[in-house]
């Protein structure tokens, strides 16, 4: 059985349990408290997907491979609510709110930004003036300012930052 197919089946199993209410617990509440919910140990439930904070600083590619070794990908972000959830997750683990890789990059072709988990490009939260690394492959990380909650900046992919992985509960490939 192809590994990708097997992974989809496992994810579908997790999803099915969650839908059946067998594993349902409260997820992050309005105060920003993190809950494991229906996610594996050390992952946190947004109500839709599972997220893991990775403190170790790695290049973008190593961070993505680390997520893949856990059956996940670097986090993709699809709306303001998800952005807020990830901000809360980072605040819980890193009060200094340093730089954190997300799964967005234009490593394949300059200017063609895509998510490493293959999800649609339906949301962007670039900081003013970004992305500005026009001269080659760049990777996106979260960056926080005093005056605003945070946004995305592109940087050279070999920089070493902390990261966030996302385990999608939804079934891939129509399974
Ligand atoms: Ca670029
Ligand atoms: Ca930049």
From TrEMBL:
UniProt entry tagged with the keyword Disulfide bond: yes
Signal peptide: 1-20
Species for this entry: Gadus morhua (Atlantic cod)
Cross-referenced Gene3D superfamilies: Mannose-Binding Protein A, subunit A
UniProtKB keywords: Disulfide bond, Signal
Listed name of the protein: C-type lectin domain-containing protein
SUPFAM superfamilies, A to Z: C-type lectin-like (SSF56436)
InterPro entries xrefs: C-type_lectin-like (IPR001304), C-type_lectin-like/link_sf (IPR016186), C-type_lectin/snaclec_domain (IPR050111), C-type_lectin_CS (IPR018378), CTDL_fold (IPR016187)
A Pfam family that the UniProt record links to this protein: Lectin_C
Residues covered by the C-type lectin domain: 46-166
Superkingdom of source: Eukaryota
Entry keyword annotation includes Signal: yes
């Amino acid at each position: 059985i192809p590994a990708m197919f097997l992974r989809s089946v496992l994810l579908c199993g997790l999803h099915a349990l969650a839908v059946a209410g067998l594993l349902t617990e409260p997820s992050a509440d309005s105060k920003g408290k993190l809950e494991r919910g229906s996610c594996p140990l050390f992952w946190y439930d947004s109500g839709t997907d599972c997220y893991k904070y990775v403190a170790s600083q790695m290049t973008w590619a190593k961070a993505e491979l680390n997520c893949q070794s856990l059956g996940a990908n670097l986090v993709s972000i699809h709306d303001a609510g998800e952005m807020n959830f990830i901000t809360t997750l980072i605040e819980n683990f890193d009060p200094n709110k340093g730089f954190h890789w997300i799964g967005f990059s234009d490593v394949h072709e300059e200017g063609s930004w895509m998510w490493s988990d293959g999800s649609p490009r339906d949301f962007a939260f670039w900081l003013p003036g970004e992305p500005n690394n026009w001269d080659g492959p760049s990777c996106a990380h979260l960056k926080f300012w005093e005056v605003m909650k945070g946004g995305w900046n592109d940087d050279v992919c070999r920089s070493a930052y902390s990261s966030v992985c996302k385990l999608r509960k939804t079934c891939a490939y129509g399974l």
